Amino acid sequence: MEFISEKLTNYALWLRVSPVPHLGYGRLAISCCWQDYPAYELQPVEISDEEAMLIDTAIARLRQRKASVAEALMVYYLSKENTSYVARELGMDRRKVTQLVSMGESWVAAWLEKDSESSSSSICID
Q1: Is 67 in contact with 23 (CB distance < 8 Å)?
Q2: pLDDT band at 32, cuts 50/70/90?
Q3: Would you state the pLDDT for residue 83?
């Protein structure tokens, strides 16, 4: 599960510096989470636009199915804080936030895996 955590961390960095419109999380909400974290901007983004947009699409789909899971996941990664902070921000129990973030990570990982499998099976060689 470490790989998805790294991908989501890089995605959160990409959200901050990318001029591309985002499906999963609105620009206004992003700016609210980032105003207290200027050091975040100084880190290099280690994710391609294509991979970030795939994650963005996955989170947008997750938001349609389970908005609370998507919200907890995004606040956790955008704020770079622990689950206690996220719980206070969302008005939830810390254990519930831990479960939601874990569910979100698993859902995004499964969606990315499914997407990569469908992309590789649809490649046609003449």
Answers
A1: no
A2: very low
A3: 93
What is the residue range of 41's domain?
2-121
**pTM to 2 decimals?**
0.76
Rounded to 10 degrees, what is the CA torsion of 114, 68, 102, 107? 0
Distance, in Å, from the CA atom of 20 to the CA atom of 53, rounded to the nearest integer, reads 9
Domain count, the chain: 1
Q: Is 126 among the domain residues?
A: no
Q: Kindly state the average pLDDT of the residues 94-121.
A: 89
Is 10 domain-assigned?
Answer: yes
Quickly list DSSP for 39-61: GGGGSPP-S-HHHHHHHHHHHHH
In angstroms, the Cα distances linking 59 to 39, 53, 55, 79 are 25, 10, 6, 16
Domain for residue 75, yes or no?
A: yes
Here the tokens at position 31 are 């700016």
Both structure tokens of 103: 């569910």
DSSP H helices, the chain, are 2-17, 27-34, 49-65, 67-79, 83-90, 94-121
